[in-house]
Design brief:
Chains A, B: InterPro entries: Nitroreductase, Nitroreductase-like, Nitroreductase_HadB/RutE, RutE-like. 2 copies of one chain form a homodimer. Helix content of chain A is 41%, strand content 16%. By secondary structure, chain A is α+β, with helices and mostly antiparallel strands.
Chain lengths: 197, 197
């Protein structure tokens, strides 16, 4: 049976973790991006469908390709971030189910049922995006997730000719708490968000 | 700056964590459910919108209400779990933005734009569901998330007369690794799921 993580770990993952808008001038290595994915991939998805696909935008050229599709308020901080992950979703994820869920014909549960495909892709691709955020924090990186961008533009620039569609973006690096860090916004209390039945 | 978490913590959160189908006969306290939420609530959401709402189904009566809406394969294990969280989403989340995002009129970004409301609710409610899974693992609990149930039936039974809709379910307790634990299914490799641009 597992124990509770240390107070320091709970702080790092949840209580002290913040959405950063400014970044220290410190690179994120390709090795760290691999470490990140190698943790995040284990998070649970429906029928192990694992629909998330990620482009880690790191080079000047790829950042320039991304730039015009960012909302005005997201542009400067994203250009300055060491890495921007385009968290995307493969809407033909079910074609990989013979590999990912070998003990049953899970492909047949989805193929041809477009509403189920799209709902499963969006729900589970989003879950995996959250696992990616938690994995980044777990290895000592900070995140700045964002939804404000032109999804269709990003899809045309990065996923043309595929069944992959962008979901949201995550700036990744080492957050600079001395700049552009908003005060922590309030959260809903347990009684506002939850009940025990 | 943060450090990498311990190997044991990374195992507990990601590498050794499993989706359990059988549960040890050990209760999950209301206090633990509060601890769980008090961590998960800090995970980032778009404009701090925090659309997730949760019913922790714990009593025999509430379990009996849930039971008929479960898919056949999910029923017995869910009835046996100490707690089943109904992870749901408030599609009028934007009415709480004056409280949750006090430094701007974020309510006006959403009100009246139903496609944006629904996309934001589903994406961010799902992110928060993943934070709930990671928070449960962080405090030493195991999870069994599921999508196989009659959402409309659950909504009518638990959320009638509200703007809250069910998203997915999470059985929560202490997993029994000696029963009904499938072998770990394969995951996509980095190169299958990601690229660095």
């Amino acid at each position: 049976m597992s124990e509770m993580l240390s107070e320091a770990a709970l702080d790092q993952l949840f209580r002290s973790a913040r959405t950063f808008n400014a970044w220290l001038p410190k690179e994120v290595s390709d090795q760290q991006l691999h470490e990140l994915y190698e943790l995040a991939k284990f998070g649970p998805t429906s029928a192990n469908s694992s629909p998330m696909r990620v482009v880690f935008v790191k080079s000047k050229e790829a950042k320039a390709t991304l730039s015009p599709f960012l909302s005005e308020g997201n542009r400067a901080k994203t250009m300055a971030a060491p890495v921007t992950a385009i968290v995307a979703t493969d809407h033909e994820f079910y074609e990989k189910l013979p590999q990912l869920f070998p003990h049953a014909d899970a492909r047949s549960w989805f193929a041809g049922n477009q509403p189920l495909i799209d709902t499963t892709a969006f729900r589970n691709g989003s879950l995996q995006g959250a696992y990616l955020i938690m994995a980044a924090r777990s290895i000592g990186l900070d995140c700045g997730p964002m939804s404000g961008f032109d999804n269709a533009g990003v899809d045309a620039a990065f996923f043309a000719g595929t069944t992959i569609k962008s979901n949201f973006l995550i700036n990744i690096g080492y957050g600079d708490a001395s700049r552009d860090l908003f005060p922590r916004s309030p959260r809903l209390s347990f009684d506002e968000a939850c009940r025990i039945a």
